[in-house]
Amino acid sequence: MLPTLSDRREIPNALHVGRPNVGDREVFNALVDEMFDRRWFTNNGKLVHELESRLCEFLGVRHCIPVCNGTVGLQIACHALELTGDVIVPAFTFVATAHALEWERLKPVFVDVDPITHNIDPGKIEALITDRTSAILGVHVWGRSCDTNAIAHIAQRHNLVTMYDAAHAFGCSHDGKMIGNFGRCEVFSFHATKFFNTFEGSGIATNDDALAEKIRLMKNFGFSGMDNVVHLGTNGKMPEICAAMGLACFAKLDDILDVNRRNYDAYRTGLSGVPGIKVINYEAQEATNWQYIVLEIDAGQARLTRDELMEVLHAENIRARRYFYPGCHRMEPYVSLYPDQKDSLPLTDALCQRVLCLPTGTAISVEDVARICHVIRRAVEFASRSRQHIIKT
Ligand code: T4K
Fold it and tell me: Which of 54, 92, 106, 361 has the fewest CB atoms below 10 angstroms from its CB?
């Protein structure tokens, strides 16, 4: 039986979006053996320290505090920054961004996106600012940076905090500076599906020593020393085995990057000239991780919709994903809590209808890419022929 559209089981032999990069297995196994010998599995261990140093060096940032996952990382960051009331955030993001706010009892005020960059449109922010607004939370979607300068100016004018969800943006730069250095802090995801992964995990990057200190307390129940709890805290710690995976991924980072770049180029070539199918660009002068192969489908030109194309790909066992359909503003609890926001984002709605993510990463070969491109080309040709036929008859 063919998998259904909503099916998210592990499907044998499928080409998946988000197949993990494994890193250097020998490095990983050696680190895990040492970890077993040391019998130190979590709570600020040696490997977490080592990972933090590597992260800071790689990003050129003072702190990049490892935590258990990006969602909890966002929650801790919001809490540490003492945000209150409303936070302006795009709805074109993984639902974790909005959930982290709502979990912290902050109201996500959704702002529309720029249809070219897919990121928060700074021109739309000021109209949403009220005396309840405390912050702007930008998301560097697909690793392409938000317009951090414009956002910083707006924040300064209105005395707001800026922070970024950098879940997609590890290894990416903006204006020649690594992402991790913008806003008060930036939160990466090191989930298994990401360019750089620690199975589950995250790093909260900041150049603010006081904020870093607070985040360190908060991720460890507020402990300062053995019996001394000085702050509200949670359990946001990264275990040692996850840090070992991060170190193993560092050992292979250049190889992973090369494969992603190779696959991206193969998609660009394989899909060139297919009517209505565009692969999004990355800026040549910036560092990028090439982790996302994102198609924009112009249904008028392609003569088939994004969803029709996805059906075709799924029938071929190619598990393309329509991230971030239908947008947070149309998901629960937001649609019930804030019904007035549901119809306020026309550009987000349009984007959610035309974007499709394709498989890449080290599990995907150039032959796989060629097959995927062939399926897409044939689907568009077939749609064009059959629809011309329907019009003629
Ligand atoms: N902000 C943004 C902008 C984000 O994109 C994310 C996470 C977050 C915040 C939160 O960060 P974390 O708390 O996750 O650190 C997946 C990931 O689970 C999620 O981390 C990611 N964004 C999101 C974009 O994608 P789902 O619900 O689509 O996951 P799922 O289970 O459908 O898997 C995705 C694909 O990966 C499938 O095709 C299967 C494949 N896969 C997955 C895993 C875990 C594998 O082949 N092997 C695996 O081990 O969310």
Answer: 54
